[in-house]
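Recap for those who missed Tuesday's class. We walked through two folding examples back to back. For each one, the amino acid string is listed first and its predicted structure tokens come directly after. Nothing is annotated here on purpose, so try labeling regions yourself before you check the end of the notes.
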Amino acid sequence: MDAAELALFALLIGAVLGVSVALVVAAAYRARDRAVRRGAITVPEGIGTVLAGMDDAAVVVDPSGTVVVASTPAAEAGLVEGRTLPEAQLALLARAARAGTASDPVVVPLRSAGEVRSVAVHARAIAPRLVLLVLHDVTEQERLAKMRRDFIANTSHELKTPAGAVSLLGEAIESAADDPAEVRGFARRLRAEAERLGALTTRIMTLSQLEADEPLAMREVPVDELVTGAIEAHAAQADAARVQIVRGGETGAQLYGDPRLLSEALGNLIANAIAYSSPATHVGVGVKTVGGVVEISVTDQGIGIAEDDQERIFERFYRADRARSRRTGGTGLGLAIVKHAVQRHGGEVRLWSRPGQGSTFTIRLPQAVRDAADEAALRHPTRSSDKKKRKRRKDSAA
């Protein structure tokens, strides 16, 4: 073998050795990367146990957005082990946490069981490549917050109108000081706006108290007295509108509740029935007891309520006929108060209405149930009290 052949052979041997070394090095790097990846997706000890005891939906996700570990409630939110995150915003929050730029909890929409829920998402990195997402359902809190915002906005708008009218009428009275007839006319309008403003503030306070779950002054309330009082309180309004109020149905029913709130709720229904009725028609107030439930119905022969409006008629400040409501001084809070007052007493309000045929609002409340001892105490309070005293003395002697 000559020198040229030896050199070629040596070159071949070197090439083979070089390739072999390169392959060994590459294999070592790949093995190291696999080991790093295996170590990175290993869930820290104890995380699974913690997630198993959580009431909120919580998941651990890897860099691909796949759920590695999930709490039991997570399945209800569509977060299942072995599947990717269902919402792009969740994946974005996970990437931000992995990069170290996670912020305070973020509220995101999440579709679950066919409905969209609002969830506050906490995202924190728990390993170089793993992120923990904790989802707390805040749908109800968001709804209440929106209701508060809408309530403040609507209240401000409603208060602005009579307040502005009072200011303008005050200026008009000042400018017409030399004309007694004009002053009297402006004064009547001023009084009407002041009464409207007072009614609005009173109803706002009542609704706020109902929504604040303040204790009610509960006692036994005779339905006959409740109905009679509400009718008498609105007799002048009915006479002015040339509408007759007719009382019918059963007598002797009893309710257990706050008489002031129940009277206001029934009064609001009667006032609305009169306001939305045509002259020479009548408003009926009927009572009946069905299966332990007292039903008080208020029926009118008015303009009726369109089907689309019926779904929103109990919302605060909602008016099916704004023009008529303005003319009659309506605040848009009467039916909202009815709904909340009845619900606070464990009842419900039902509505039947047809445009052009009239409407029927029915308050359904549990009937007051008394045992024999309670019945005797109500009929003969002194005698019952004496019996209780004798029983206490006998128990003490024993």
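Example two. Treat it independently of the first, because the proteins are unrelated.
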Amino acid sequence: MAAFAEGVPCWVDVTLPDVEAGKRFYGELLGWTFGTSAPEYGMYTQAFRAGKNVAALVGKPDGRMPTAWSVYLATGDVIGTARKVRDEGGTVITDPVRVGDFGTMAVVADPGGAVFSLWQAGSHAGFEEQGVPGSYGWAEVYTRAPERVDAFYEAVFGFRVEPDEGAGVPGVVRWTPRGRPAGAEHAVGGRGLISAGYPTEMPAHFLTYFVVDDCDEAVAITQQLGGRIAIDPVTTPHGRSSVVIDSQGASFAVIDTRTRGDAATA
């Protein structure tokens, strides 16, 4: 598999109190099957769609840890990138550490407080499948410090920050890696705003989107499985999406990229 370009989201995993319950939830919702859990890595369990890896589930070693999806951004030099994170006003939460022969990771946060991971690939490059139903589709960071955060991702990863008119929400931008042409088709992620309409206690965070065949059906299945809706389905030029919460409290989004509209509508 070809390596992911610098800064491109290459992997996601979710930390859960109960991995077996997570397997039942995501297996039913997204059609995933699962590999053998690795006890030496916190019961780390890879998820597959049609035999290709698409994400992973991991057990919470500590109840104080958040139940949440994590996004990994690719880097060819995790030590150097972690240094850039510090230099540009971010925080290194966990210094670079090798994960067997799979690769080397670090956990960091941007200047607005949104946590993400860096991944320098070894034998595990990242997604074998993405952009199709049942797999990863998109990631964006939500922040209250847009100017500082935009400058951070430009400096650390070389992203070009462009307005995203297709998002249907004012102030949203998209990221395009260095060397790629401008335009939504070349973007790899984006940045939204935590506006006054959100709870004051909501922290800055990354939101992971998974592609589905039908957004409304996925929302209904989420509720049937014990999850709930955080943001009702809306149709934009990018597709019809909804933010939901799984049966254990982890937030994510589902998006049907084939159902599109000219402006954001319910």
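Answers for example two:
The CA atoms of residues 235 and 265 lie 5 Å apart.
The radius of gyration is 17 Å.
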